[in-house]
Specification:
Blueprint (H helix, E strand, L loop, with lengths): L1 E3 L2 E3 L21 E9 L2 H11 L6 E6 L5 E9 L2 E9 L4 H4 L10 E10 L2 H14 L2 E7 L3 E8 L4 E8 L1 H9 L4
Parallel strand pairs: 3-6, 7-10
Antiparallel strand pairs: 1-2, 3-7, 4-5, 5-6, 8-9, 9-10
Length: 179
């Protein structure tokens, strides 16, 4: 409860109703659900997020990259936002590490905002918008969980990632721990 003068005001909640998302009309007109960071030391990054920022538990996916490198990604929900921390090295890892400082020490940088795509029309709209605006799509992938792509909007200083999930991908998102 907030008291202003003699008025008593009750805390308000935000209306977060879901509208029809139209990424074909603008790339930010998609369901934003994820904040992601790239690092050169995932254990140090995880400690920062846990010990100093309050995220209690993560789950990890890791494995080889298609070109021979290796990736580790930790995931955690905080409310309606999923946090992702990524460490990748070796061939094929540049999309994750190219914006990290290339010097000694621990580095952590915002990498992308993640958006959930719900159907093929929205998925194709992402590519139409990127092309219309002259933005590169430097990465596309498909696996049993989902299709994904990064759109590079240089003015933002980070990527926009679009995820078109299969049911297995949605099940994975649902299994990510909540803090």
């Amino acid at each position: 409860m907030i008291v202003l003068g003699e008025e008593i005001m009750m805390p308000l909640s935000l209306d977060r109703s879901v509208d029809r998302f139209e990424p074909g009309s603008g790339l930010l007109l998609s369901e934003h659900f994820q904040m992601a960071y790239a690092t050169n030391d995932i254990e140090a990054a995880r400690a920062l997020f846990s010990e100093r920022l309050g995220i209690r538990e993560f789950c990890r996916l890791e494995g080889p990259l298609a070109q021979g490198g290796y990736i580790k990604a930790d995931f955690a929900w905080v409310g309606t936002v999923m946090y992702e921390v990524i460490e990748a090295a070796g061939p094929g890892s540049a999309i994750y590490s190219d914006r990290l400082p290339q010097c000694d020490g621990f580095h952590l940088r915002h990498h992308h905002l993640g958006f959930l795509i719900h159907d093929e029309e929205q998925w194709q709209g992402v590519f139409r918008q990127a092309e219309r605006n002259g933005w590169a799509v430097p990465y596309r992938s498909r696996n049993p969980l989902l299709q994904a792509c990064f759109v590079d909007v240089p003015e933002l200083g980070h990527y926009l990632e679009y995820l078109f999930a299969e049911q297995a991908g949605l099940d994975f998102f649902a299994s990510v721990p909540r803090s």
